[in-house]
Design goal:
Elements lengths: L2 H57 L10 H10 L12 H5 L17 E5 L4 E3 L8 E7 L2 E8 L8 H51 L14 H49 L7 H28 L8 E4 H18 L3 E6 L5 E4 L1 H18 L11 E9 L2 E9 L24 H4 L4 H11 L3 E6 L3 E10 L5
Parallel strand pairs: 6-8
Antiparallel strand pairs: 1-2, 1-4, 3-4, 5-7, 8-9, 9-11, 10-11
Helix pairs in contact: 1-4, 4-5, 5-6, 6-10, 7-8, 8-10
Length: 475
């Protein structure tokens, strides 16, 4: 069952429930309301009967309630329906001296429920009353001589009241039906408003799961569904970039492994065919190719461990200033052999960070090796090439900067330096320029230390690498 069918069924069920509730509540509330209205009306009539009876007693005093005949009681009861003797006392003689030859009208629905009782509660005329029925005292000169009361209705009995209740119920029920239909009519486009992006997302997810990563959704909403569409587009873009990166990664690995294997295979075939002599010099050349291949495989292995989070880090407080000075000292002979200047400047001798000594040493070695490898011995102004290492304090971070003199790196290529197998000089082979994995490894190490890595153009004319590491409070 599709979501559209489920949603429509839910809306219909919801509408029917609301309709049934409205009809039931209308009937219940209307019934109670009309009963309350009739009861208030009957109480007013009972109060008028009481007042008329007391006015009558002023003209015809009695010793007790039983002195009033049933005929007179019924006459007072009927007369009270239309006349209030308190307002028109001149009509009392008409009540008393009414022509008895005329046939009296029948008692109405209210009058048949009114009873006259003695002051003791003894029933004289009318139906017996329940315990909780309404009773009013009849006073003569301030003394209670009788009681009147009536039994409130539990159900409507008067035809006019019943017809009024039925007409009101029909109108309210029709209104409830119309409101429900109107709600369903309004909810239908509202359901489409929510279903349309869901269907688009479902279709896009099917294409995405089928391998089509080019699908993008048009985002025109500002609600949660619009946010979900934006998240889908971001996911598709990320997956497409990851797939492209993976394909490029595999192609680069294949290329980098193919070259040394081709050299090894060609050299071995040449020696087997006696084209090249099988001597120590040729074997040493093969050994160098194997060493290069082994180093490449080790770099790939380290990067793969870093990607899956399996690269081990022995984190502890250490003085990165001492570590920098040790690394610079190790590279001084190489700098001198290339006629380069290697300068180290540290702001403090106590620069504590929380990190892995071996990994940070690997980071420094990669940065210094790259700087010395790609820096010209003589600059365009005739001065010696320069590699400069500085360590400064920036707020709550230690900032390590490794920069060199010319040649520089194009601005467009700065953001690609940490990508695997990327070389600024496409013609550079892996013997002179490496495999292009060093800076990628540096980025992984910096990330593991909760730091940042940035590449900028140096004022010296070359590349400037900025590494920021969080400061440790004490060593």
């Amino acid at each position: 069952m599709g979501i559209r069918v489920k949603l429509v069924a839910f809306l219909l069920l919801f509408g029917f429930v609301i309709l049934g509730t409205l009809i039931w509540s209308n009937q219940f509330v209307l019934h109670k309301t009309i009963l309350h209205y009739v009861d208030q009306r009957d109480q007013q009539r009972l109060e008028r009967v009481k007042n008329n009876f007391e006015v009558y007693l002023q003209y015809e005093p009695i010793a007790q309630a039983s002195d009033v005949s049933e005929e007179m009681w019924l006459r007072l009861l009927r007369f009270s329906h239309r006349v209030d003797l308190v307002q028109v006392p001149t009509m009392i003689p008409l009540v008393i001296k009414r022509d008895l030859r005329r046939r009296p009208p029948p008692l109405d629905e209210f009058e048949v429920r009114v009873s006259l009782m003695a002051s003791s509660g003894q029933l004289l005329y009318g139906p017996p009353l329940e315990k909780h029925a309404l009773r009013l005292p009849i006073l003569e000169n301030g003394v209670e001589v009788a009681q009147i009361g009536y039994q409130p209705l539990k159900e409507l009995t008067d035809r006019a009241d019943i017809e009024f209740s039925q007409s009101q119920f029909k109108m309210l029920s029709l209104g409830a039906v119309l409101i429900t239909l109107l709600a369903l009519i309004l909810l239908w486009p509202l359901a489409n408003h929510f279903l349309t992006p869901i269907r688009q997302l479902t279709e896009a997810m099917h294409r995405l799961s089928g391998g089509d990563l080019s699908k993008r959704l048009t985002v025109k909403r500002q609600d949660e569904l619009g946010e979900l569409q934006r998240d889908f587009n971001h996911l598709a873009t990320t997956l497409e970039a990851a797939q492209h990166s993976r394909n490029q990664w595999i192609a680069d690995i294949s290329h980098e492994l193919r070259t040394p294997l081709t050299v090894l295979n060609g050299s071995i075939e040449a020696m087997c065919d006696d084209v090249r002599p099988l001597n120590k010099q040729n074997l040493q050349a093969l050994q160098q190719e194997v060493a290069l291949l082994q180093r490449l495989i080790e770099d790939l292995y380290q990067l793969s461990l870093s990607d899956v989070g399996a690269l081990q880090y022995a984190m502890q407080p250490l003085n990165v200033s001492t570590l920098i000075q040790q690394s610079v000292a190790q590279f001084l002979p190489k700098a001198q052999s290339k006629s380069l200047q290697l300068i180290c400047q540290t702001e403090s001798q106590q620069a504590w960070v929380f990190g892995d000594e071996n990994r940070l040493s690997q980071l420094l070695n990669n940065l210094l090796s790259n700087a010395l490898e790609y820096t010209d011995a003589v600059q365009q102004n005739g001065e010696r090439g320069l590699v400069k290492v500085t360590l400064t304090k920036k707020m709550n971070h230690w900032q390590l900067v490794v920069e060199d003199s010319s040649p520089g790196v194009l601005q467009a290529e700065l953001s690609q330096l940490s990508e695997r197998f990327f070389r600024t000089d496409k013609s550079r082979n892996r013997r002179s320029g490496g495999a292009g994995l060093g800076l990628a490894m540096v980025q992984q190490i910096v990330k593991a230390h909760q730091g940042t890595l940035n590449f900028e153009s140096s004022e010296l004319g070359g590349l400037k690498v900025v590494v920021s590491l969080p400061m440790e409070s004490q060593g």
